[in-house]
Structures are given as structure tokens and as C-alpha cells.
Write the C-alpha cells for this entry.
Amino acid sequence: MKSTLLKNRFATAGVVVFAITIVALQASHARLQTPLLKVEKKITIPGGPGGFDWMLVDRNTERLYATHKGTKSCAIVDLRTDMALTSPVIGTAQGVAVAKAAGKIYLGDADEKKIAVLDNKTMKKVGEIAVEGPVDDVIFCEKNGMIYADHDDGEHVWVINPKTDKIVGTVRIPEAPEKMEYDPATERIYQNIKSNNTVQVIDPMTNKVVRIFKTEQAVGPHGIALDSKAGRIYVAGKNGKLVVIDIKSGNVIQAVSIAQGTDQIAIDHAKKRIYCACKNNISVVEITDSGAKLLGNVPTPDSAHTIAVDSQTHAVWTCYFDASGSYLLKLLP
């Protein structure tokens, strides 16, 4: 996932963009009997303007994390108060993961080729793990207690022991990985690959790829979400297609048209919804017995391309920036 600090682009239009977006959002609601999403709160993030990358809601720490690449920090919100906390400076971070037992937070760094380690309580940097290339996504695997960090546009995933903060293995994959997720039901890690439109299925006990799923209509797969109970994987391509994959067979059972330019997606299991952060829109998709269907598109600022869902409150979070600053936006269904 890549974003840049487009200050010049927003220098004269940043505030207007948000105002127009909110007007469009309100207008779209007026045409619907029940709004898909409504703006609840806008939170200004310290540090000034700068592009964001991945977002994560973690209920263990009761925080929202949004890696703030443009300011080389990580934006953090206390979910109990919806207040922004101090943003620790960590480098050009992309992925973020929380290792609860180790009391640490791991952030993949693109430019400095490292993984930054924060103390969970103090939110201060307590270490760095050097790697051979830029890091994109980072996840925690419940099965073996390891941290997995993929090589942005590279060909492998690094495996890190949070007890020692040492690399203990690698997983060979095709070039250009994107988002990955761990599924406790199948005890597998699912890694999107942009270069060949596949999902690589990784066994964390052997750190090897054991299956490969084609994403078919979803070209340039970015966002991925798992539904363990239904046995499905949802994968969104940059071309405006969301595919539903059956985990047992590995086959695509349905393709849904969504807005183009999808990056991160997030699932709300209780509401049976998938939210897809696309260029200028959040595509809201309903999970159905046969697969999924598009409910509609909610306008968002141009620089918003990542998303996270709070499973307890059902709040939908996205982030964006303009010439004046950087913001997290809380929306409610």
C-alpha cells in the first residue's frame, strides 16, 4: 500500500473537498430511507498534514491505530473517549499489529526497511528490527504467537518472535504482497498477491504456502476480510470488483461490482456488512446467504483509502488529510 504527501494538490482545495464531501454525504442520505453511514465525529490528529496507510481497531488495548506515513508517526485514538493520543514518531510506517502477550506493538516501515517496536503501555519505541526491504502489512498470528511482516513488492514474508524481536523464519511467496489476515478457524494466514491475482494460503506451523486461490475478477487484490463462521474470504481488487471465495474449495462463488481504487476493507460480522475503502467512496456491501450484494457508495475525501470497523460499537473509521491537517473520521451505520 502506498500513499504520498500531496500538499500541493490540496493547498487550495483541501477544506473545500471535505465540505463538498459532507454535503454529498448528506445528499445521498436524503435519497435513502435509512442512511448507510452517517458522520459521527471528526478528530484532528497532531502532526499536521500527511498521508495515512493501514488502520487497525484493537479492543485489547481499546485503541484505534492509523499509520501516518506522511508525518512518520502512528495516529492513535482512545476508543473509550474518542480522543487522539500522542502520536509516536516511528518512521514511514505502513502495517500495524498488536502482540498482546508480549505487550508490544509492531509497525512495518517502508523507507527505513525496519519494523518499529512500541511498548503497549507507554507507547514509546523500545526497539527496531532490521529487514532486507520495505515492509507493508504486519499481523499477529494467534496460532504460533509470531509476527508476520510482508516485503512490500518483494517475494517473502518475515516471521518474527515477539519474545526476542528476532527474525526466526521466512515464507517464500510471489512478488508484490498486499494485505494479509489470520483465520483462527482454519489456522491459516491468507496473503493477497497483486502481481498474479492470487491469495497465498500459509500454514503458520510450517511457514509454507499450502494452497493458492485465484481472485479471478478481482484484479490487483488489495483488501481482504475473513468470515470464519461462513467459511468465506472477501477480496477487493483495485479494478472495482469484490469477490467471495469459498475457503474449502478455494473457488470464487460470486463477484460484486464496487467503486474502483479499493485499498483496505473491513468486515462487521454482526451487521453482516463489508466496508470497502475506495477512491472517493466507501462501498457498503451486504453479506448474503449466496454471497454478497452492493448496498451503495458513501462519498469520502479523495485521500481516504483505508478503513477499520469497531466490532463492539459498529463504528466505521477512515482517515484523510488536506492542506490544513490530518483527520480520523468516525461514521455510524
